[in-house]
């Protein structure tokens, strides 16, 4: 697709953001749906500046969103891996340990998978739990993760888990969720509490949470789209954060 950036770009040039900057922003944002926003932070010679952009009716316009909150989906996997490293540094686990060492039941077929393998997507697990996508399609559920409970995950770990591509990279939302789940069991805390303790509070990310009710007044507005891929119930994914606080 080819777009006339000059025609859709209505972004304001500022002291810290040049015409070339706005054209780059408009080009990136132009391929997205209406109501999509970008919140940008620039650090130049120690000076911090923010810039916001919104696609509205096919045009890219400036908007103040430095205090807005966005759903971040799979970016949360970085937080989960950060929790893993921090807990390992505290001596609570070793990244080379198999996760079953910290559970009160063996994995299916006595499978051994390390924390490291879950974190770098070499655990050999599928992208989603078995049957989840089909159930979402036939039930017209726009959030297939919502009803995937701890009990269902435990049942998968005990009776269904099967490695397909051991030691090879295979991106897995399921694996990220399992990693987050096991970390909560080791710490005996919820995923939300772990994020607050290890990441959000130390970094001053005061409007960051996995709980929608905590941040709903700050959330950016968006069109209703099919959002298969957001992990709501199981730990391993955070739904919201305030980008300017990172």
Topology:
Layout: H1 5-8, E1 9-10, H2 19-29, E2 37-44, E3 47-56, E4 59-62, E5 70-71, H3 76-89, H4 115-119, H5 132-139, H6 150-160, H7 173-187, H8 191-200, H9 212-215, E6 240-241
Parallel strand pairs: 1-4
Antiparallel strand pairs: 2-3, 3-4, 5-6
Helix pairs in contact: 3-7, 3-8
Structural class: alpha+beta
Rg (C-alpha, Å): 21 Å
**CATH second-level architecture of the largest domain:** 3-Layer(aba) Sandwich
CATH superfamily (homologous) name of the largest domain: DD-peptidase/beta-lactamase superfamily
Biggest sheet overview: 4 strands, mixed
Shape: globular
- Count the beta strands: 6
Number of domains: 2
How would you describe what is shown here?
This protein is an alpha+beta fold. The chain has 2 domains: 5-66, no CATH class; 71-245, DD-peptidase/beta-lactamase superfamily (Beta-lactamase). The chain is built from 9 helices and 6 strands; from the N terminus they run αβαββββαααααααβ. The strands form 2 sheets. It has a 4-stranded mixed beta sheet with strand order 1-4-3-2. Strands 5-6 form a two-stranded antiparallel ribbon. A hairpin with a 2-residue loop joins β2 (37-44) and β3. α3 (76-89) packs parallel to α7 and α3 (76-89) packs across α8 (191-200). The model is unreliable at 223-246 (pLDDT under 50).
